């Protein structure tokens, strides 16, 4: 891959996906597919552990009354997580807190229940709605997350028994006392609307879930439900005000040192607010979404911050997410209000250009000078005639070249969707040829 990050961001970019195993990533709800790695277990402060069983992190607090576990990892991480917990403490599992309802954080608890543990499960009230949304959109989620069937044949959690549901929910703040020690749960919004972060004041430890990950906040994912950049900034500032000594983040490495933590959280808030302000200013001035995104620039001190590399999401996507939050779906161009089908538009462009071949030639000649523009021309060629092998190759290769240059995973993954379209067109062509020969 051609992707490089500035020197000061490389460590965080490398750590971003932890012990990610693509086999597990494609069967995220399979209890039979773990990360295949020995979990990383670090004692962050006395009786407090950072555990990384796979792509995600878990926080463990030991108290005299029992264990407090923050998050439970992916379904397949459950057994390894249980072992990791038992390698440091034999106290009973008293309480589990879900930082949010995502597939990689709230699904490993089954292994503890099967081992006879009977914890209460505490979460923000919107986690219940999040799980219900998973059931409602199982097909959509399986597809956009590239999921394959697990041993039970399911590609996504789709029935009530696929979840370990919260037994106790809260809406804004909840204080727990375990073994005489205070733990404060605070609701925030960020990547999701159901987020909780946990503050252990006597230990100076904050378990942040995905509100802290060591990379640019995932606040703009192009295919997912609404994200909350403004509230994310609020939460970052609120966390910074506590001056934690340690943050156990939802992904990436353990973060230590109050000064570095405050610097990171404040930079994160400034970064998000910068994008939100730009989007709102543009919308209020009557600019179209494309114009707002096109004119977005990020100050160097934020773009180069060591803990905020755009390794997953990127500023343009966050900006569009803010626009979506406050405006409708229309891009503002009259022709796209009630548009002609894209293939028909592409055929008209091909006709004007003198054929699909002319579009393919033009796409290739643009590829070295303006790859972004070349993508459009290659797409017109492919949509004008999906059966044309030159258009297929051009579309596939130019989009792949673009994907390889992008730093963010979301951009790479979604540009590579072109591959599946081309593969589908090729196999449809092959099937038609076979049936024609009969
Ligand atoms: Zn996550």
UniProtKB/TrEMBL annotation:
Residues of the Metallo-beta-lactamase domain: 55-251
Matches recorded under SUPFAM superfamilies: Metallo-hydrolase/oxidoreductase
SMART domains reported for this sequence: Lactamase_B
Any Pfam family hit: Alkyl_sulf_dimr
InterPro entries registered for this protein in UniProt: Alkyl/aryl-sulf_dimr_sf, Alkyl_sulf_dimr, Bact_Alkyl/Aryl-Sulfatase, Metallo-B-lactamas, RibonucZ/Hydroxyglut_hydro
Name this polypeptide is given: MBL fold metallo-hydrolase
Protein's organism: Blastococcus carthaginiensis
